[in-house]
């Protein structure tokens, strides 16, 4: 997905949030927002938003000297989500369709994104997830949620590549992977996180803190972009991305980065802004801001 | 209220919305957003947001040749609100405290702001207003809603200046003014609108379309700013603003423009963004985004 003009105000907003979270004083905040504003006209509209945002974040990090301003938020997200781990497991155990419930939880986990909504009250949202207030997934509509296709693909998959999104959400991912492994313990599941800090994207330390290592191999994709931009990924990841029998990609950033890539991918995400909702709609899938989407990108030419 | 750094992304967003509503093609939209982005570093942080936004809007109007891109929206807002006029009147008639109900409606009417939320479904919101889902006005808390003070002031007022905010909201204002006049038909009420189009702010034509002329004198404040910036107002308005026994100011834009002015004002508004909510909180009034506020600015030095 390319960068839209509507992304410009958002890039500016993120720069300011980054600066504030880094503890920058008002003078430094002004310096940062001025520089980013001046750089907007030069930004590429053919690159994906995670790519466009990369230079902005690198600049803010350089000025503030803080390479991971969301660290505290990520640690908190992991620990709050972990508190709900047993509740989620019980929830799945009681379900008639355990895999479906685990998928629903994994998508709902995507709401934990301090990049898009920094005032989100995680505990409240957890309550909503458990009360199943996020039932927007229409599994009758195969264009959005092709559950039958998902199950069919999963069954014949030997090696599954699962691309992580945010810290905290990692606990939800663990729960889904555990359910996948419960059905078939011989499946190889590789869980890919970011190499370096970018917003609240999960790093190796977050995956470990969430206990993902108990059920999957964890690797770094090599990128420092808030979305797995392939040209910034390492060779190992690229190879796995090409060769995996099935790829699950979590979150908006990864969708933005990978939706033009030439392979089939199951995208699980919440459409967090109007730009992405409109973009998904332009693919023929009616989507509005806030919708929870499982989109199967089918690629036949690889 | 001064312009905050957090207003910068919003100015950029408004510029793009303005350009789109003006029917600008993608090239022109890009030209506009680039120019506005480049001008942000030069913007004054001591001026109020309506003042800061003025040049941006003038520039967009010049480039697109469209001096009133929100015209269609304003006409629609007036006509939809008018459809509810009789329902509002009945609602007030049934109320035990008719003035309070009329005030509550007038504040609720402030939700109709295409400048802040352009996807708002007016009819849905009207339903919410009638079901009194906007009961956030705490009239026990005198710092926020000094109803006793309001009534006391109103009683001794001979000339009331009522400063309008948006088109559509004008119908709600009419209902409140009619209630004020029902209590005391000899009160002089002057209703001030903007001189030239700015976002969806009410102009003379909107006040007339809403039938405000049936109950009040309508004047133009002389300004073309989305908020009554005194230095852009005409002499007649300034005189009235100084001499009125009581001033009611509607909406966020007018609060931003007048909250530092040296006279007592009853501000009725919905805090539509975090910046204004934080600003109001800094005045010692706990306020969060989305709160409905009636704030009495007391000035003793005039």
Structural write-up:
The structure is a homodimer of 302-residue chains. With 302 residues, chain A is an alpha/beta fold. Chain A has two domains: 7-64; 71-297, Uncharacterised protein PF01937, DUF89, domain 3 (Rossmann fold). In chain A, 48% of the residues lie in helices and 11% in strands. Chain A has 13 helices and six strands. The first copy, chain A, has a six-stranded mixed sheet with strand order 3-2-1-4-5-6, sandwiched between helices. In chain A, helix 1 (7-21) runs antiparallel to helix 2 (26-39), helix 1 runs parallel beside helix 3 and helix 6 runs antiparallel to helix 9 (169-183). The longest helix of chain A has 16 residues, at 49-64. The first copy, chain A, is globular, with a radius of gyration of 18 Å. The two termini of chain A are 19 Å apart. Residues 114-119 and 135-143 of chain A have low confidence and may be disordered. Chain A binds chain B through residues 5-6, 8-10, 12-13, 16, 26, 29-30, 33-34, 37-38, 40-41, 45, 119, 274, and chain B through 5-6, 8-10, 12-13, 16, 26, 29-30, 33-34, 37-38, 40-41, 45, 119, 274.
E-strand count of chain A = 6
Main sheet overview of chain A: 6 strands, mixed
Q: Can you tell me the number of structural domains of chain A?
A: 2
Q: Which CATH class of the largest domain in chain A is shown?
A: Alpha Beta
Largest interface (CB within 8 Å) is between:
A-B, 20 and 20 residues
Uncertain ranges of chain A: 114-119, 135-143
Distance between the termini of chain A: 19 Å
Cα Rg of chain A: 18 Å
Q: Name the CATH superfamily classification of the largest domain in chain A.
A: Uncharacterised protein PF01937, DUF89, domain 3
Q: Bin the strand percentage of chain A.
A: 5-15%
* Total DSSP helices of chain A: 13
Shape of chain A: globular
Mean pLDDT of chain A comes to: 88
**Helix percentage of chain A:** 40-55%
CATH architecture of the largest domain in chain A: 3-Layer(aba) Sandwich
Cross-sheet strand order for the largest sheet of chain A: 3-2-1-4-5-6
Q: Under CATH, the topology of the largest domain in chain A is which?
A: Rossmann fold
SSE string of chain A, helices as H and strands as E: HHHHHHHHEHEHEHEHEHE
The secondary structure category of chain A is: alpha/beta
Quaternary form: homodimer
